[in-house]
Amino acid sequence: MATGGGASNPPPYRPYRHLRTLAAHDQAVSCVKFSNDGTLLASASLDKALIVWSSQTLTLKSRLVGHSAGISDLAWSSDSHYICSASDDLTLRIWDAQSAECVKTLRGHTDLVFCVNFNPQSNLIVSGSFDETVRIWDAKTGRPLHTIAAHSMPVTSVHFNRDGSLIVSGSHDGSCKIWASDTGALLKTVIEGNGPAISFTRFSPNGKYILVATLDDTLKLWNYSTGKSLKIYTGHVNKVYCITSAFSVTYGKYIVSGSEDNCVYVWDLQGKNPLQKLEGHSDTVISVSCHPTENKIASAGLDGDKTVRIWVQNT
Known about the structure:
disordered N terminus; single chain
């Protein structure tokens, strides 16, 4: 099939290799994320702490302590100055990543807070909880703006699109929904709640698609406007945990995900089969993050592992 004149062939795949293992948490590492400017890496753990690392030297810069229970998720503000954490203690905390101080505590959820994200403007925070609600907060004041009775089971992921106008949520109830961030109104149910539990969902970098993980070892790319599934990614193991996945766009276009076989999987965005399986963790890889400008992946392991691993492409 002929392609348009502007189409370019993807670069040949360059394998990733293990660069460093970061061991500083006492329990399962639940989440790892590079800051938007690429200078820092944050990890969250069931040990109740967040750790901020230099992504260049991979040295520990600070430890953020204050939650009274484990942390499930973290998000960076767009300017890479603040981190918001979601905890089993029913709160979210906003931290100054430079001073390592907690600047706000967001209270309102009535069960474990499981997922969190800033909007691109970073004036709003969205959170999802085992209380089945999605909540939208004013990031500056910490005040709740909207409480959405979003799902009939725990909310596993929440994410803003690139202009901040939309929020996507996924839940153990099997549904995936799109909300207006300014009003909290339901705009669309992309996936009805009659299939497997949705363990993770997020918008693509260009905002046109959503990546959806389900607890039947499957990742799918959806066009949420048409409600059609476009691509499927399989080969990994995901039946139990809410494993995050990421888009890698710094060299070629890839999908990266953790897996319950203790590996990190990398797929070509266009293709179905994994290009590479990164081995080394000794427990489920629950979280992955791709560096915004470098060909670098961070991954996090559960309680039998407790480490963050850094992977780089061979140059």
